[in-house]
Amino acid sequence: MACLVRSWIPLLFLQSFLVAIAFGSNEGEEFSEELLLKPLPDRKVLAHFHFENRAPPSNSHGRNHHLFPKAISQLVQKFRVKEMELSFTQGRWNHEHWGGFDPLSSMNAKPVGVELWAVFDVPQSQVDISWKNLTHALSGLFCASINFLESSTSYAAPTWGFGTNSDKLRYGSLPREAVCTENLTPWLKLLPCRDKDGISALMNRPSVYRGFYHSQRLHLSTVESGQEGLGSGIVLEQTLTVVIQPETTSVETNMQPSWSLSSLFGRKVVGSCVLAKSSNVYLQLEGRLGHESKNVDTEIEAHKLWMNSDFDLSLKPDRVIRESSSLLFIFDIDKSSDSEPFDLGLTWKLPSKWSCEQAPLHASRFLMGSGNERGAIAILLKATESQEKLSGRNLTTDGRCTIKANIFQIFPWYIKVYYHTLQIFVDQQQKTDSEVLKKINVSPSTDKVSSGMLEMMLELPCEVKSAAISIEYDKGFLHIDEYPPDANQGFDIPSALISFPSHHASLDFQEELSKSPLLSSFKEKSLVRSYTEVLLVPLTTPDFSMPYNVITITCTIFALYFGSLLNVLRRRIGEEERFLKSQAGKKRGGLKQLLSRLTAKIRGRPIEAPSSESPAAESSFLSSKLIFKIILVAGAAAAWQYFSTDK
Amino acid sequence: MKFLILVMLLCYSFAFSSGDTTIHTNNWAVLVCTSRFWFNYRHMANTLSLYRTVKRLGIPDERIILMLADDMACNARNEYPAQVFNNENHKLNLYGDNVEVDYRGYEVTVENFLRVLTGRHENAVPRSKRLLSDEGSHILLYMTGHGGDEFLKFQDAEELQSHDLADAVKQMKEKRRFKELMIMVDTCQAATLFNQLQSPGVLAIGSSLKGENSYSHHLDSDVGVSVVDRFTYYTLAFFERLNIYDNASLNSLFRSYDPKLLMSTAYYRTDLYQPHLAEVPVTNFFGSVMETIHTDSVYKAFSSKTSNNKINSEMPVNQLSEHDELQKANIPNDELKTEKQKCPYTQMRVDLHEKLEKFENVDTVVNLGIAVMVFVVMISSSLL
């Protein structure tokens, strides 16, 4: 009996396992689409599209995809990607006016061009190979030259400066990469409704790319299921952040421009994507406006919120949520239809002004020095207004108030940085390393092999007004084949990343909003970070026509020299006259004479009488024929011998 | 045994030589804009116009390799972001919503171009960046940029020479990567680029003869630069009148070029191309028109031979070579027999193998054969 029970147990396990799989697949994939609109203090409007696609854990063999893009799940499976982020950006995020201390800016303010980082779930030795294959796969998927990141001179392996601590992390960026329709189209094709229906239908290419800033981001992370036998689930987050200037007709300069979705994008939303679990549009109003009204309890108060003396909304919000410093209107677009499209508009009645929360320090970077030989890079951190509010949070053990700032920077190999020249100035006074520099990690570059990387952790006093870091470098020389076709334009140094490890941004909603992935991601604490400008370094570019000039000049000189020298050496002055005389003496047939001269030239002998010449040639020809015959027969005999003895 | 190997080699060569009788399976297009910098806007517009045309005529995106050397659509100088026009009336946005650029920017190099043609890529290169044509493919290769006597400039930094192009095409032919290839080049002195071509099945059209320039068609004062080249403009004018079902011949395309309008003389090299141009529809290269086969009975697996036969008979007369007709005559309609029938080479090999199996003293036969050969050699040498 015991034996019987023992054999049953595994079967029971198997059964429960199968049931788990069945339920797991029933749970299904989830897709949600959201749009956040936010008027910005400098008369622009921010539109943040957020699409989230979740694939639940299932067994890794034979996953069925309904909504989740197959291309992405194959990518994750093949290269064992644990977490990955790819962004395509043009324009620079204005930290002062568009915000620097909210989750939106810390997650979506990206460096110009393409930025890619990925964490792999493979043995340490295979990480670089996986990275290389991943870059190629992504370049095919997104129509961009991401494959340039495969070479070891263009990526780095940050240890702690990037914010994600993993030894299997690789980071690379391409500042020069163009971002255009061909990148957005494959990105949209990953969505279940593409750009045909729902919120994504708003993405009219010319209006998106006319904006001041557009950043298209794809973030994927795997979620371990914890169950054995089940693979990991994938969360794919796709965002597009656009900053657009609405067209205004009003002449008043201090008046905020009024806008509507159709005036921003030239399109309206006609119904939600039917495959989406939730389709919401949010309107966030920041600053003074948020504080004005305290109670949202009664219907009249709510009405006052969206139709008051300051501004009008064209549609009634479904819900209103208050945050510590802002108001959030929620609209559900399920109700819109072809006959009644969703076209949210905001009309300002009175001039209003507000400001955004800013990061503790504002970072900028610039080049110093002149000439084509050497220079210096400086990173300047300036205190912002919001610093007073934030300070006091980070008290060290000895009671000092400090701000921690991480700096992560990649240098291409042709920027040969001298790390010993690192200087740190706090409030224009030079400080020694031990005073402010808490941690530093340097990996020097190797010519044409790997790029250099600098990670620094600064600990600055809270009352700091400005801090500057400078480092000197020499400009390297490239091989003539390594120059790009537009070398005269200069070379880019990728953006530096400044992050504040002890500051975290989050929006503090009073209500529970587990339904919305966008708002719940805002609720989570995210690291405050900002990217600096891309630097353009002019390198010495050769005169590309120089090799050609050198070749032509040398050839001319050689030809002149050897031509005249040979002429002098070989010419016999008396010869020509004698030849002419002899020709006048002998009168032979033209063709025969020509032939004899030709044979004489070939043989290098003086002209002989034709009669004496021919028999000798005949005999030598005969003898060669004879030798050939003998060799042939001997060969045949040898072959015969070989094959007969082979047995 | 050595004799057998010889026979096998002969058989192989027979099989290879019969390669060009394969039927047309699919269409590919490689469209290359080799010029960088904003003032070369027209070259990108040329390429994108062709891209739009071949897409409209049925070649899907995955069978188009589009190489653009610079970004004009989202260029900071472009007054119309994410839009490219080839006419000053701005009626048609060539960039549309669905462009897939396979190679762009610094990736457009002579090396990558030759790699695409010859198919010699690194392992990691994704499928969308490869020309995965086969021996039944018709390929359109369109190139535009700045050229000269027997060369075409890439990105103002490199050159593709006529020898390179000819070598690549030769390699493609040997690797059986195409059945027919049409090269269309819109550059100055385009005709000189075809001088070294030798491979059969190649048709070439150039916008200008040696010593002639290819001119742009008109300037768009809103965009600020010339937007299209003359040769491409008139090619498009021809294609805009067509739809996928039209049967216009290559000859009518070639005749449509007027040297007065082009301000250069279009050049056609047809000596490597067998079929008669008047009978080849333009959609053979610029579109993808699939033959539909009507069957009365239900579809059966393994009856590919008979369906092949049907495709051939429905195709235009010019595509039927003599070999095809012979094959057609040989294939009986009875399905059982068709299944049994194998390719002549395998049949021959099987027969030979069977005979040799029956033979017991193979070695003596071989030795005797060699002895006979020795005699033959001796006789021939004494005759010399």
Automatic annotation (TrEMBL), chain A:
Keywords on record: Membrane, Signal, Transmembrane, Transmembrane helix
Signal peptide from the UniProt entry: 1-24
Sequence intervals crossing the membrane: 548-569, 626-643
Pfam families the record matches: Gpi16 (PF04113)
Source species, domain of life: Eukaryota
Name listed for the protein in its UniProt record: GPI transamidase component PIG-T isoform X1
Organism: Camelina sativa (False flax)
Annotated gene: LOC104764423
Automatic annotation (TrEMBL), chain B:
Keywords: GPI-anchor biosynthesis, Signal
Signal as UniProt keyword: yes
Associated pathway: Glycolipid biosynthesis; glycosylphosphatidylinositol-anchor biosynthesis
Signal peptide, first to last residue: 1-19
Stored Gene3D superfamilies: 3.40.50.1460
UniProt cross-references to InterPro entries, sorted A to Z: GPI_transamidase, Peptidase_C13
Family: Belongs to the peptidase C13 family.
UniProt-recorded name of the protein: GPI-anchor transamidase
Organism of provenance: Camelina sativa
